[in-house]
Write a structure and sequence with these properties.
Layout: H1 2-39, H2 44-55, H3 61-75, H4 79-116, H5 130-140, H6 142-151, H7 156-165, H8 170-180, H9 182-193, H10 207-231
Length: 234
């Protein structure tokens, strides 16, 4: 019995050390990225526009874009900027499917990061607080809850990390993310397709394409409200 306790205790210590190491590496990556932007006097928009300029028309543009999107959660880079860049770089026809695949993969990376820092056993989450009720709902009705949060445009990475930390079903998370993010992804890609550059403001702005983007955004919010009324008890 004593040996089992020692073994269990060593596993806990080892797990905590591994998590601390991962957290340290992640913090170093974020710090290095921040230092690079400051040293090169670039904003995230400037850096992304440089990537668009280099990749535009290149055969490797799609895999490079997907890889950048997959690395995005490690750098805390805004997902919306990359999705808009997909519209500028590839246009709506190619940009929408590429952005959907890249964004879903990126969400799963963030999900795994959250899961890494999660306790092995999570409590039921059925307490009286709003957080308790919502965390319990995320585990019990993973697909519907994640899809609602996607449709409502809640902070993208907050949903990803929370879902991983709560250890919800990974398949349900990926499916709900792909489906629930569809209106938002399309609207942001169309917004990008209405622009010529990220750093040029409204220069070359296409109002018709942008209007379609706004319409999809509004439809997504409306759908989330309808689904919420029907699925979430008051």
């Amino acid at each position: 019995m004593e040996q089992r306790r020692c073994t269990a205790g060593s596993r806990v210590v080892s797990s905590r050390a591994a998590k601390a190491t991962i957290a340290g590496v992640w913090l170093a990556v974020i710090s290095g990225w921040t230092w690079y932007l400051r040293a090169s006097r670039q904003s995230p928009v400037d850096w992304l526009q440089g990537l668009v300029d280099v990749a535009s028309g290149a055969w490797w543009a799609i895999p490079a874009f997907v890889l950048a999107y997959l690395a995005r959660p490690l750098l805390l880079f805004p997902a919306s900027l990359l999705t808009i860049a997909a519209g500028i770089l590839f246009g709506p026809v190619v940009g929408i499917p590429v952005a959907i695949v890249a964004a879903t993969g990126s969400a799963f990376v963030a999900f795994q990061i959250g899961k890494t820092f999660s306790p092995t056993a999570m409590r039921a989450g059925d307490g009286a607080t709003v957080i308790d009720r919502w965390s319990g709902r995320m585990r019990d009705e993973s697909f519907l809850t994640v899809m609602l949060m996607r449709l409502a445009f809640l902070p993208y990475d907050l949903v990803n990390y929370s879902a991983g930390f709560l250890r919800i079903n990974a398949g349900a998370f990926v499916a709900a993310t792909a489906l629930g993010s569809l209106p938002g992804t399309i609207s942001f890609v169309l917004a990008g397709a209405s622009l010529q550059r990220l750093d040029a403001g409204l220069d070359g702005f296409d109002p018709k394409v942008f209007a379609a983007s706004l319409a999809l955004f509004a439809v997504s919010i409306a759908i989330s409200k309808v689904v919420q009324r029907q699925a979430v008890p008051s």
